[in-house]
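Slide 14.
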Amino acid sequence: MTMTADIAGSQFRYILTMRHASIAIFARLSLPSLTPCFVTGSSASSALFVPSHRGGQQSTSSRLFSSSSSMSPPTTRYVLSYDYVPDVLEKRGPHREGHLGLASLMIQDGTCVSGGPTLIPGESVPKGAIFVFKTKDAAEKFVTEDPYVSNGIVVSHTISEWNVLLGTN
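Slide 15: predicted structure.
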């Protein structure tokens, strides 16, 4: 269920999920001075918004997790996102075995959780790829050793920290 509320003249969108007779509230904020907290409660009125800085000190809730929550702390993963050259299907052939082999080895040794190409719905040519790693070092190692990177198939990449609140990734 999605709700919109007006707080301090700004629109906030809430995604409400029923879980064990409580409502889990996640907020997508439009004000940079506020940081959302994850909270549980019996009604939407239990939502908390905490300023991200108090007297120059960073708030303890800035990682989207409240210690008062009944859920476990989030698992940190690292998401490697690739952007491919437009003619990836024509150029990847000689390098594909090495690329997939490296990913398979890292999945077998437990440093890579998952990965695969990204496509725009309805299109058949991958625009890039996403891989999920357990450590930043593993993601960086993949970039360093990937033949798609060294042979120009990947035109840009980013590594982002991801705090997994829901699911088992």
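Speaker note: The helical segments are 88-91, 93-108, 136-145, 147-150.
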